[in-house]
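Hey L., structure's done. Input below.
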Amino acid sequence: MKKRILSVITAAALTVSALAGCSQGASTGSSQNSQTSQDVSETSQNVPSSSTMSPVNTAGTAEGKEAAQGQTITFWHSMGGVNGEAIDYLVNKFNTENTLGIQVEAQYQGSYDDAINKLRSAQIGNMGADLVQIYDIGTRFMIDSGWVIPMQELIDADGWDTKQIEPNIAAYYTINDTLYSMPFNSSTPILYYNKDMFEKAGITEVPDSLPKIAEVGDALLEKGGAGEVISLAIYGWFFEQFTCKQNQNYVNNGNGREDVATAVDFDQNGAGLKTLTAWKALADAGYAPNVGRGGDAGLADFSSGKAAMTLGSTASLKQILNDVNGKFEVGTAYFPKVSDEDEGGVSIGGGSLWALNNENPAKEAAVWEFVKFLVSAESQAYWNMQTGYFPVTVAAHEEPVFVQNMEVYPQFMTAIDQLHDSSPKSAGALLSVFPEARQVVETEIENMLNGNRTPEDTVKRIAENINRSIEDYNLLND
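Output:
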């Protein structure tokens, strides 16, 4: 496929507010000013070609370090609120402490979609940023764009050991043994439950599948004092995770990793129907009412003490604990399976760091020095403590800050254990029209729960709509 992103379908998809893994990526209130993106449909011709990729990179070498001396680089990110404050702290620390005189200018771009759309309006060799944070579902789009220098080039030039990165996190951003971007803010979904309600209901084992959630439903409602068994948000990311838990692919061509996906696979391998049948059964029994769409839709009912369980990002842990404020004890467990026999794992969400190809080797070398700082054990331990995202670097687990944080928030160990118990086979799909696909999934699941569709019809409609978008995108970018 030629590296040209010309599709109007894709432009529309990228403007959808479909955030990956954790809604914090779209938070407002950053210490940096948001910048308005231009109309992507007017500027798609400015996407750079893959032919501009540097054939040789000296980042990390003595030559590269010398070139990086005194460089100023621009870093676009989508972290607002407390996450933005954590970004600012790390940037200031790097600017103060690095011995090469490199200065990083961090600029908050609003949502992840805003960041990509702004890139589309840029000129070749002058994209406005040297390093950009992009959500996980933008991975295939970024690879196809030709905008980037694969992070692997910078890694290889420096002889940097990729084993420093958690393998099940690196797996998502690795295609054909090439790590295209550096993991930075990674999360997985987990089950949150009200320990007090479980104790009142006499439930001693946390359900690990959707059928087992149904089995404890009456006890939680009648004895535990729950108003809802589970506040299960209609969220495309959860649908994807249920597919991963079944060890099945979301799209064809090796989940879009062996080649560009040409169609969804969950309608062919049965994963979609299995997920929606179990989901609808919970809803029809009154255990999982429609609480709305989006990753945060189910959190309020849980934090208020209405719902006994909810699903949410690991990065939501601190916010949930703050909202609960001691009203009850919060427990955490693995993301549930669709059926008891499932043996799959979970895929990560969140975002990663992409080095942009502005044809400036000196800035590329400076970018690499900053990236290494951001994924150092010390930085990642701090990042985890402040935000709740995973430390992507294995050695961060040995940092005193991380150890102390785990003592304060033992619930987070569930996320660590779940990550380690998953495998790279559960890395998740790569799809250029993922933002649009998530909106299709959520719309059709909502219709199903409102009684307008059967699971069979819902899977069919989801597949047809997403496949149409994939076909249009591939035709326009072939």
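The chain has 21 helices and twelve strands. The first helix runs from residue 8 to 14.

-- N.
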